[in-house]
Automatic annotation (TrEMBL):
Encoding gene per record: cpfC
Entry-linked SUPFAM superfamilies: Chelatase
Positions bound to Fe(2+): 191, 279
Reactions mediated catalytically: Fe-coproporphyrin III + 2 H(+) = coproporphyrin III + Fe(2+)
Organism name: Brevibacterium permense
Record's protein name: Coproporphyrin III ferrochelatase
Pfam family, any one: Ferrochelatase
Length: 370
């Protein structure tokens, strides 16, 4: 069936980013409103954006993903409109949903650009849906917004990550000759989050960190045995006050320790990011690369999935999966062997997941139906 019924329209929902220097400070104010991030950290992050001409790479990457998704929908004969809306910058979710709602669309399905469970990567998007729904309701427009499941263990994302890793290892091999367990490490990198956010992510799912570990086990199992050097999960982009604990080790700290232990080369695999947005462009390609240079480490940063075919097809599969669930059809929800698909309402990513300090309205409020 070449339809997404009962869904009238699809949304690519992302973070948003500034396009010009004068947008950087207002953007950061939007991001951090009420989130207690110290002024020094904001100035530091502002400098990262100014260093790139005040333009975040994220918008162009989302436009490319939008075009790739449209292409895949068209290939499948799915005519459902697809729009793009952000949390923190123009085009804003509410404005984009309003346009289609005025044309009569009521049921929306969102593709969020984050793979794992946590407040920042799942629940906060559902808070955004609730705000949009409320705002439009006040204007006399009734809409609902559902979302696809977190996709870290969907075969499409995993296949794309595996392909990127394969290519990255080839690049590394061209620098070092032979990949060697005694000298080389594979460091999977993701966004650090506060420990309390990690804990909240474990209430109804296996949680943020364990989800990364599942994907890592899978990816390591797929690389040639000769390349299977020790690997670990490290973090970047820590924010917040220094006295608040966040997930560690930081990628730079860990590279420093490894160099002291005699490691001479690292392959960084940014599985926490679907495209090369600012955390990748600055925290990895600028800062971590400099650390590697100072330490004399051979260094390869593996590609993010971006618009990789397998990833794009996987996202459209997830759209079709969710639409079928909403039609009440029994559907196959594929997941990596030994892992569980986070089907909304099945006990994962439910109303109870990833609660923060402050309780805000979310939508949808899936019931836990085990
Ligand atoms: C888990 C996670 C993802 C991945 C999931 C997803 O993709 O959604 C993500 C994505 C992103 N984060 C981004 C940017 C920022 N994140 C910040 C702050 C924070 N992120 C956090 C977590 C995450 N963030 C957290 C716990 C905070 C602390 C404040 C809070 O508790 O909310 C700040 C404030 C300054 C600072 O503190 O660094 C900025 C500017 C951009 C845009 C980049 C670009 O422009 O290319 C993207 C894609
Ligand atoms: Fe962030």
């Amino acid at each position: 069936m070449n339809t997404t019924a009962p869904i009238d329209a699809l949304i690519l929902m992302s973070f948003g980013g500034p396009e010009a220097p004068e947008e950087v400070v207002p953007f950061l104010r939007n991001v951090t409103a009420g989130r207690g991030i110290p002024e020094e950290r904001l100035e530091e992050v502002g400098e990262h954006y100014f260093g790139f001409g005040g333009k975040s790479p994220i918008n162009d990457q989302n436009k490319a993903l939008l075009a790739a998704l449209r292409g895949e929908l068209d290939r499948r004969g799915i005519e459902t409109p697809l729009i793009w809306g952000n949390r923190n910058w123009d085009p804003y979710l509410t404005d984009e949903v309003r346009k289609l709602a005025q044309d009569g669309a009521t049921q929306f399905l969102s593709i969020d650009t984050s793979a794992y469970s946590s407040y920042s990567s799942c629940r906060q998007y559902r808070e955004d849906f609730a705000k949009t729904i409320d705002t439009l309701q006040d204007e006399g427009l009734t809409v609902s917004i559902d979302k696809i499941r977190q996709f870290y263990n969907h075969p499409g994302y995993a296949d794309a990550c595996a392909d990127c890793l394969h290519q990255g290892l080839a690049d590394f091999r061209s620098k070092v000759g032979r990949i060697d367990s005694a000298k080389h490490r594979i460091l999977f990198v993701t966004h650090s989050i506060p420990n309390v956010m990690q804990d909240a992510s474990e209430v109804t799912t296996n949680g943020y960190r364990a989800q990364h570990e599942e994907l890592i086990d899978h990816l390591m199992g797929r690389i040639d045995e000769a390349d299977r050097v020790p690997s670990e999960l490290v973090y970047c982009s820590r924010s917040g006050s220094p006295e608040v604990p966040w997930l560690e080790p930081d990628v730079n700290d860990r590279m420093t320790e490894l160099a002291e232990e005699g490691v001479t080369g690292v392959v960084l695999v940014p599985i926490g990011f679907i495209s090369d947005h600012m955390e990748v462009a600055f925290d990895l390609d600028t800062e971590a690369k400099e650390t590697a240079e100072e330490l004399g480490l051979d260094f390869t940063r593996v590609d993010t999935v971006g618009t990789h075919d397998a990833f794009v097809r996987g996202l459209v599969d997830l759209v079709e999966e969710r639409a079928a669930q909403l039609r009440g059809e029994g559907v196959d929800a594929p997941a990596l062997p030994g892992t569980k698909a986070l089907v909304p309402g099945s006990g994962a990513c439910s109303i109870d997941c990833c609660r923060g300090r402050i309780e805000r309205a979310t939508y949808p409020n899936w019931a836990i139906a085990n």
